[in-house]
């Protein structure tokens, strides 16, 4: 089909990644889906995706994935992990896993793919937490701050030979929340403000067709993040009840 793209989607076995993989397949694109769950990968394979099992907490899985890829038109870095804890109670293993999945594996893949895929579209699923850090998300927010900084530098480094898009979302109704907060408090308090993964996926599909620099969802939260960056002290003072949701 005209305009058919070959797209790698990481974190494709749940949440935004799975919704995106299915929407890309429905649009006629070639999808390489990478994720942890054998069951979910089987479902994606049945829908027409090429699948690779990978756990991005382990660098060997990242390396194995890179060694098996075809030439790509785009990659969507959708794998992500987080644990909502106060700084003094965060386990070291959780810190390492968070940065391995959210940052280091992405850096490794980016460097490799830029060498082997001229003109590639790099789409980083970050988070509004990368702009507004909140209580009990210090490590997660730090990983997303790192990702945003990395993507900004890569955009400048690759001008004219790659396309870089960052997608920042507020809380999304996915299994990520169940792992990040086993108490269920955050899911309950976020309630009607939770984005649907299908909504985010649709936006990413449109970005593949018409690239943009950055997407912030929902838009109102994106505007709030800009205000926070301009007036952080006032934002923390008057927005505290919204930040203490975890």
Automatic annotation (TrEMBL):
Pfam families: adh_short (PF00106). Gene3D superfamilies: NAD(P)-binding Rossmann-like Domain. Residues 5-175 form the Ketoreductase domain. It comes from Planococcus lenghuensis. Keywords: Oxidoreductase. Belongs to the short-chain dehydrogenases/reductases (SDR) family. PROSITE patterns: ADH_SHORT. One of its GO terms (cellular component) is membrane. InterPro entries: KR_dom (IPR057326), NAD(P)-bd_dom_sf (IPR036291), Sc_DH/Rdtase_CS (IPR020904), SDR_fam (IPR002347). It comes from the Bacteria. This is Ketoreductase domain-containing protein. One of its GO terms (molecular function) is oxidoreductase activity. The keyword Nucleus does not apply.
């Amino acid at each position: 089909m005209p305009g058919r793209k070959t797209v790698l989607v990481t974190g494709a076995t749940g949440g935004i990644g799975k919704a995106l993989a299915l929407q890309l397949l429905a649009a006629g694109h070639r999808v390489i889906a990478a994720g942890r769950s054998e069951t979910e990968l089987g479902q994606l394979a049945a829908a027409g995706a090429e699948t690779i099992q990978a756990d991005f907490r382990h660098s060997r899985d990242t390396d194995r994935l890179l060694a098996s890829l075809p030439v790509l038109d785009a990659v969507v870095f959708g794998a992500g992990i987080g644990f909502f804890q106060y700084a003094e109670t965060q386990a070291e293993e959780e810190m390492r896993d968070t940065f391995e999945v959210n940052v280091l594996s992405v850096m490794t893949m980016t460097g490799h793919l830029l060498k082997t895929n001229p003109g590639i579209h790099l789409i980083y699923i970050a988070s509004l937490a990368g702009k507004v850090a909140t209580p009990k998300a210090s490590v997660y927010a730090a990983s997303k701050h790192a990702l945003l900084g990395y993507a900004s530098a890569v955009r400048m480094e690759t001008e004219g030979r790659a396309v870089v898009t960052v997608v920042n979302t507020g809380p999304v109704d996915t299994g990520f929340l169940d792992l990040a907060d086993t108490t269920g408090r955050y899911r309950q308090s976020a309630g009607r403000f939770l984005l649907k993964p299908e909504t985010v996926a649709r936006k990413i599909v449109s970005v593949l067709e018409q690239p943009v620099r950055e997407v912030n969802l929902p838009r109102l939260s994106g505007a709030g993040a800009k205000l926070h960056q301009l007036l952080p002290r006032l934002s923390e003072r008057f927005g505290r009840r919204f930040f203490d949701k975890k």
